[in-house]
Specification:
Layout (H helix, E strand, L loop, with lengths): L11 E5 L5 E5 L4 E8 L5 E3 L20 E2 L5 E2 L3 E4 L2 E4 L8 E2 L12 E6 L5 E8 L10 E10 L3 E10 L3 E2 L3 E2 L17 E4 L3 E2 L13 E2 L11 E2 L9 H6 L3 E5 L8 E7 L6 E6 L3 E5 L7 E2 L5 E2 L6 E5 L14 E2 L5 E8 L4
Antiparallel strand pairs: 1-2, 2-3, 3-4, 5-15, 6-9, 7-8, 10-11, 11-12, 12-13, 13-28, 14-27, 16-19, 16-21, 17-18, 17-20, 20-23, 21-22, 22-28, 23-26, 24-25
């Protein structure tokens, strides 16, 4: 299909499992437009926020469902220090650079490299980010493969290579509501995080120092707790993030694929596990959605969806103590994240 301002055709692909799990993926931004998950009775429900038509993603300011790059999260002042040089990146979040800039990976058509069927249907996508794009050094070739797994989940495998030293920090930005994309607030969802530390931020979302303990704070999800249980507390970090918009440090991170989060919607009982190879996960509760028009006439108010964005820490180029996002020629960036919906 042709879309205004996009020179390449944009296509929509459907992946489906025999048990009903179904995803529709748009080549524009690698967007997950729908993710239909059966409940215990087999009834399908679309659990990701989005738009009815591909054209809705042309101005995808909330980054609904998109692949994010070249750098997920924020870089302070849009300044990328690298090998004695400072590269000025596009600023699209007040004074800062956010999610790859206004022309980031979420805005571009991705090339389809493979469509796999069988018991684990998949879709391979590729994008080549040229040297200087949004201010970044180096030409980076990125591959992302979406797979519906035998474990009843959606997996994303990323790889990236560069011809010049640069930074890469990819993530997936779906907003989930396990009761259904238009079901209202997600503050009743129970969240558990395998993370005993979180990254404190200033009012612009920039880290102010190393990860801090969650114990005794509204950021303690080591035991399951409703997302809304403590979000209204008078806490500096809740004020700075306007709720939860913080990166949590995964306990025991060693680069292996591990479960780092569990979310349960208590009324319908739908459950989601997040597994990743990444050291951090950004919890965001849709603060800035406020009144967005969504699929099938839904209105996405603030707190209508939550994101669990597996990634490296925000602003790591300015924090050498954080896990590195640097990528050199000859190296391969690799990341895997899974969203699993256990039955029963």
């Amino acid at each position: 299909m042709a879309l205004p301002g996009i020179t390449q055709p944009v296509d929509l692909y459907t992946l489906q499992q025999a048990d009903g799990l179904r995803a529709r993926i748009l080549t524009l931004g690698g967007v997950v437009m729908t993710l239909e998950v059966p409940d215990a009775t087999g009834r399908l429900t679309d659990v990701v926020l989005g738009f009815d038509e591909p054209a809705g993603y042309l101005d995808n300011r909330p980054f609904l469902g998109a692949l994010i790059g070249r750098y997920g999260n924020r870089i302070a002042r849009g300044e990328l220090p690298l090998d004695g040089q400072v590269f000025q990146l596009a600023k699209n979040d007040g004074p800062n650079h956010l999610h790859g800039g206004p022309g980031g990976f979420h805005t571009v058509p991705w090339e389809v490299t493979d469509v796999g069927d069988g018991p684990e249907p998949s879709l391979g996508l590729r994008y080549v980010s040229r040297d200087g794009e949004e201010g970044y050094p180096g030409t980076v070739e990125v591959d992302a493969i979406y797979t519906l797994t035998a474990e009843h989940g959606l997996r994303v495998d990323y790889t990236a290579r560069t011809d010049r030293a640069t930074v890469v920090n990819l993530t997936q930005h779906s907003y989930f509501n396990l009761a259904g994309h238009g079901a209202g607030s997600i503050l009743g969802h129970d969240l558990r995080l395998w993370a005993s530390r979180f990254v404190p931020i200033d009012p612009n979302g920039i880290p102010t120092g190393p990860p801090q303990p969650v114990r005794g704070t509204p950021f303690d999800f080591l035991a399951p707790a409703p997302l809304g249980a403590r979000i209204a507390e008078d806490h500096l970090q809740l004020r700075n993030g306007k709720g939860y918009d913080h990166c949590f440090a995964v306990d025991g991170w060693d680069g292996s694929l591990r479960t780092i989060a569990e979310v349960i919607e208590p009324v319908g009982g739908r459950r989601m596990l997040v597994r990743t190879t990444e050291p951090g996960v950004q919890l965001y509760v849709g603060t800035h959605l406020a009144g967005s028009a969504g699929k099938r006439g839904a209105r996405y108010d603030s707190r209508a969806g939550f994101c669990l964005e597996a990634q490296r820490f925000p602003d790591s180029p300015h924090h050498p103590e954080f896990p590195s996002t640097r990528l050199e020629p000859g190296e391969t960036y690799c990341q895997t994240t899974e969203y699993v919906f256990p039955l029963g």
